[in-house]
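FW: tagging you since you asked about this chain on Friday. Here's the raw sequence from the shared folder, copied in full. Didn't touch anything.
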Amino acid sequence: MVGVHEGDVGYVNVVRSGSTVGAVSVLLNVGVGGTARFGTDFDIELPLGVVQIADGKLSASVKITALNDSDVEGTEYATLSLSSATGATLGAANNLTLDILDADSAPTTLSFESSSTLRIDEGEEQILAVIRGGAAGLADISVTGQPGSATLGVDYADVTQTLQLGADQQSAEFSLSALNDDEFEGTETLTLVLFDGVPESQVVPGGRNRLVLIEDSEPNQPGEFSLRVVGGNTVPETVGTVTFRVERDRGDSGAVTVDYVTADGSGDTRAVADEQYEPATGTLLFSDLQTQAEFSINIIDDNTGSSNNLDFSVYIVNPTGLSNLNPDASRIVLDVEDDDGGDDDDDCPFLCGDDCFIATAAFGSRLDPHVGALRAFRDQGLMRILPGRLFVATYNTLSPPLARFIAERDGLRAVVRAVLWPLVIAVENPAFSLAGLALLVGGAGLRRRRRRL
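HL: got it, structure written out here
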């Protein structure tokens, strides 16, 4: 699912895996069954509805603008799907639900009790709740299921109905039944949505739609893939390579594959392929009973300054053999921190975006005010004298591996903070430090005079 607030813009990435050779294209379609209307509630900047991925590129971004109509209507939705691919074949993930999140509030909102992904086994029935927010009063709301890979009447029973809440009633329940068809078909999906609140504009859908996974009850399942990043989602641009781990759980039977692919970020923090990172795609082969595999992405040190982190996405796509993707762990947004200057100059002894220098590792954040004070001490003190500049250069070379060692050990971080505190106090309170130094010098001189007497 993708959500865009009224008045804002969002982006949908269309990615291809396996090869970057040749230009490919695919049609982006807007479904007719949603409550959000193309041209009225949202616009898509896409001539003729064709998404084009150029030769040598792995992805293309589609810009979506959510229009602010000043009406109170709550969350509306539309379905987007891909079709008619040219130069490529469609993968399994070829549709999604677009939520348009209302900028105007209503007296009463009705939302699913939880927005997290719901898992239900074949043959199981679950009781779900819609809960009230805001004012009391009589309220109606309709619920339905939008099929993904699951088929209405075959994989799940129709849930379409109108829920009624009394004046003081805080929630209403309905049931979802997953049908057992005794076929080996893997995990299938549908999306629950709310619409048509009554009284109109007084009662509106207030939450995100809810994705449902119907999990196959047959034995010997091929499993579900999740994507993890080794070492954290934020890295310095000097890191070299970042390792990703794909984990297979909820089954491990048979040999299956899954692809990985990178895509540029969007907006002001967009990292660009071949500038901030090396684009990559590949296929991971999982043999029978294998549950983990890894791949790496190269980060480019571009030697240009920026005041912002830049980000790009890494996806796993196209699982085979009826395996599937964990929808909550199939994409990672990786932040790349600049170390070449700008407002957040990371080429310094006391500041580094990935905790790679000692003070940042000790205090836990490059934005900690004590780290800022040490940075100012570097700029206004050490860098103005030759011995200080030599110290800075040596420190930049030697400290990163030590800082990474410190950052992984909470007890050691506390010890380093204690060691750094006298320096922090001195640079944050120079007048106090000079007065203390004067007292120490004066006291030493007084003692010497007393000894002479």
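FW: DSSP finds five helices and 26 strands in the chain.
HL: agreed, and Helices lie at 358-363, 369-380, 386-407, 410-428, 430-452.
FW: great, closing this out.
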